[in-house]
Amino acid sequence: MANEGITGEPAPITTGMSLDREHEKIPFYRRMRVRLLLLITLSVFITEIMVFMPSIASMQESWLEDHHQSAKAISMILASSPEITLSPNLQKNVLTATDALAISIIRNDERMNLATSPDLKKVNETIDLPDYSETKALLDSLTTLYFGGSNILLLRGPIEGTDITLEVTVADRKLRQAMIDFSWHFVVISLTIAIVAATTIYLIVHELLVRPLQNIYTNMLDFVIEPHNPSKILVPEPRRDELGMTQKRISVIESELQKSYAHQKHLANLGLAVSKINHDMRNILASAQLMSDHLADAKDPMVKKIAPKLIRAIDRAVTYSQTVITYGRTQEEAPKRKKLLLHDLVADLLESLTLPGSDQVEFVNEVPFDMTIDADEEQLHRVITNLCRNAVQAMLEREDSTKLQNKLTISGHRIDNVAVIDVVDTGPGLPAKAKEHLFSPFQGSTSRNGSGLGLTICEELVNAHGGKITLIDEERGGAHFEIRIPDLPSHGEDQPKNEKTA
């Protein structure tokens, strides 16, 4: 709020863009559901290819085995009757029935040609079926499918239960055509399976992952546009997985943000109202101060008794109004740090401290004479002054307040390169409500008439030094504030201001 100006609205959550339709600006190909569908389809396609390759190899191997087996029956008959010789027409019928170009047997290293086609050309490849490996079958199947159709294959294998080796010569033209037909059937079946599988997987993943993420994304856009609308808070789904926990956490965060936004808006409206009445208020208070000055010189005893209280009330009103305006409109400057003697600074501060009722408080400066601190003198003065003012007000508001009981002690020490300042009073301490919002503007007031800005300003100034201000719990009562300010390394060996020599 300090850098908004007191008349400003709370900082918007949006970035200035039109976010209500931002999701429609995402290119189609970059949408999660499209990319998911493409990835699933690609995965199924790769799987089908990996299945197709061994399938086509197995199909080829089965085709070769079938053609070799089809010639076994006629070969066994002819092998048992060597005197039988087939006529050319009968050989043609046998070759047509077995879809072969030549059939021969080998027994005792003697070859017998049972049937031979006149169209037989040079054999391009010999395949020993018993030694036909899966790798060789895979490579041959791909070669035949893409480059075959004009080759002659010699299939060699034994006839079970005999010492006969059967050789069948075939053309790969029909093998290639059978492989093409098999491939088309495989493609049709694979596409059907791919469509069904991809659709099923997509619907499952979409329901479990994509849709909840889209709901979260849409909800975040809607919440950014209308953070004040309770209906824009995400309603978690009844699920116990990671997304369910994420939705619950986002819902809690949005609820907290909505409360924070409402609080900021309330503060902004308060600042706007204060700024509007500032001019008239200062005129009214100025007139009241002039009148109170005349009342102080009055002879009437009753007036003399009431006048000091009236003057203090007006002074508090002026201070409160000016504090609110200053907090809202002032941007703190960066600290102008230098080495200071903390004891001298505290002594000057206590000597010049003029607060109503300060004569009823004992001030004690326990800072070592030689203790130095690396800080902005003016800002550190303001921090300690605010703490002293709060302490004095708290002690004087106590009903049994006496000077013997009211004591404010300022001490200090160093821990390595960190200066530590302790401001301790013997007041009633801070109530629990004030501790909860100690450094929050308009909420952390420790006094009935306080604005709650003093401690907020203290924290901002200490944080600007890279330090920290903390309330230390004291069992004996009272308030104990600890300020820690680290040295700035770049200062080197600068001499402290007003350093005394022995």
Automatic annotation (TrEMBL):
The keyword ATP-binding applies. It is an enzyme of class 2 (transferase). It holds the Pfam family HATPase_c. The chain crosses the membrane at residues 36-57, 182-205. Keywords: ATP-binding, Kinase, Membrane, Nucleotide-binding, Transferase, Transmembrane, Transmembrane helix. SUPFAM superfamilies: ATPase domain of HSP90 chaperone/DNA topoisomerase II/histidine kinase. PROSITE patterns: HIS_KIN. Its EC number is 2.7.13.3. GO terms for molecular function: ATP binding; protein histidine kinase activity. Residues 276-489 form the Histidine kinase domain. The keyword Transmembrane applies. CDD domains: HATPase. It catalyses: ATP + protein L-histidine = ADP + protein N-phospho-L-histidine. This is histidine kinase. It comes from Bartonella apis.
